[in-house]
Structure formats: structure tokens, C-alpha cells
Amino acid sequence: MKSDRLLERFLKYIACDSESRYEKEFCEMVEADLKLIGFTIYRDEVGPACGSNGWNIFATLPGVGEPILFSAHMDTVSPGNGIKPVIKDGVIYSSGDTILGADDKSGIAAILEAVQSTLEEGVEHRPVEVLFSVCEELGLLGAKNADYSRIKSKEAVVLDSGKNGSIVNQAPANTHLYITINGKSAHAGVAPHEGIHALKAAAKAISQIDCGFVDDFTVMNVANLLSPGKTNVVPDSATFDMEIRSFKKELLEEHIASVEKRVKAACEEFGATYKIVREDVFDALHVPEDRPILKRLLDVYEKLGVNVTVEKTYGGCDATCLFNNGIDALNVGTGMADAHSLNEHITIKDLENTTLAMKLIIRAD
Predict the structure, then answer these.
(1) Which end of the chain is less congested by CB atoms within 10 angstroms, N or C?
(2) E-state strands within the chain
(3) Taking the CB of residue 27, how many other CB atoms lie within 10 A of it?
């Protein structure tokens, strides 16, 4: 591994603007680097489906044995344009008015350096596939729309988590509910008794719905309560949205039923009607600890002397989409810290350790 090249690549990547939906320039930069290393490139044109000017990058490199897939996302959150890195005492920060972009360009830099240095050392390696996605920060859009027919790997490492040595093997199923309550308009000053107050029915329903961690396996949230109109008119329509994440399918269904029960009761109290549209965003991720890819990662980190934790997270990442398409996908930490904030940072040492771990993962032994 060439530490100077790794750092130079990472700094080059974060200097290339790629906020969600505007990844084109960075897509072109990553493609050029992959081609120089020796990858065969395929553009997965998901841009129109995601509202992006970029595309997913799928690339392959021949090797020996069973293939391994590496994945990371190319987009960043805002403010992510004009990033100016500052290095102090072995830690890379932004200048303080933008995010750093270690989420997730630290993953991409580590993957490419791991493969390139492995080839330069002449070490026998597994066939390598990479999937770099767009619009991950907007709800895993690139990975959700990816062409999985090209992927041969049954194991994947996604580099999109925090602490170096963390292995995320569980993430919840995620369901969105879009709720509309219909009432009846009337003049609020002259004949309010003739109206059916949709907004009050919605407010009553929301007041009865639990939010936050509602049990040991489930988290729920309500957002986007809307009922636009004039103050002299009884609102005849109100809408609000919900998100429910649960590690257990049966609990997810129980909470959805409970939400509908409360909405129905509130509507009956005020004489309103309702409609609930359900969107199952993705199923749960659960790679058991006896799976070979997890055992191999544990062994790799042990060899490097890195403390390992196997964790579950309520957050989403592309690993869930890979798993839902038949791939044992684990999300590992690159060392990024305070992601999505102006204090985002990563140590050079963690960047190096992540690269070394990926080098050991792709070895053919």
C-alpha cells in the first residue's frame, strides 16, 4: 500500500463536488481511475430514475476463486461543494464551512488503493466487482435502481459506516405511510358546524401515535403535516407522512395496524374519512454471524489488531439493497466521524487500516 497515493486520491476525491443528483463529474473521475487500474467499466444508467446527472458505476477485475463485491456511494450531503481539507495532527477535516465528504469517498479511495496495490505486489486475488452508487443520501436510490443481473458475487463489503472495525450485519425493514384525511369545508365564521375539520382529525390521530423507539426493535416517526387553506374555511383535507423501521416483520405489521386503528378512531370522532398509502421501501438486512464473509472480516481485523464490533443499526445503507438482491452484504466502518456535519473528519491511520483490511479480504488464499 502506498500511503501517500491513498491520501492524495482521497483529497482529490473530496475536492470534486458531488452533492446528491450532481455526481456526473465525480463519476467520470472514478471511471478514469478504475480504467487505469485495469477494471472493465459498465455504466448503470440509473440517473433518470434517481433525478441525477450521474450514473452507477459497475466494474470488474478478473481473479482467482469466488468473486467479491465492494460497494460505496459517490454522492455527498449538502453543503458539499468547494470542500477545502485541513490536515492537523494526522486528522483530515474540512475548513469548517462544508462537510468533508469522507462519507463516502473514504470508502472509494480505500477500495481503489487496496486493489491497485494488490496488483502492483503481484499477490493472487479473488475476482473483484465494484458497485459505486449515486443518490444514496436521498434514500438509497442508486442501489435500489441498480442492475443486479450483472453482479456475480454472493458476498459484498460496503464501506459506509463510522468507527474502523465496526461491522454492521443488521438493519431494519423500512416502510413509509402516506395518510390523507378528508373532511368537509364550510365557512369558519358563519357556519363552522356544517364543516368536518380534517386538520383536527389529523391532529387527534397524530397525538395518539407513538414516536421514537416504541419497542426494542422498532422506531417510528411522523412528519409533514399539511393542511393548506384560508383561516376562514374549515379545512377539508389534511395529510401527514410516517416512517416505521423495525427489525421484526411481525412488529412492523402490528405497528402499521395500530396506526390505522388510531387514524380510523380519530376520523370517526370527527366524521371524516381517510386513506393510507403504504410504501415498503426495503426489507430487513440480517447476515448471520456464521456466514463466511463475516468470519473472514473478523479474522482480517484480528490480524490487523483492530478492535471489532458486530452491530445493528437503524440507519439505511446500500448493504440493505444488496442483501435484498441475494448478496451477503456487510457495512464496515472506514473511520469517518461526525458525518453530515461541518465537523466531519477522518484520521489518516483509519484510512490506511481500512485499505489494509480490504487488501486482506481480496486475497485468494
Answers:
(1) C
(2) 40-44, 56-61, 68-73, 85-88, 91-94, 128-133, 155-161, 166-171, 173-182, 212-215, 218-226, 237-246, 273-282, 285-286, 309-312, 328-333, 345-347
(3) 23
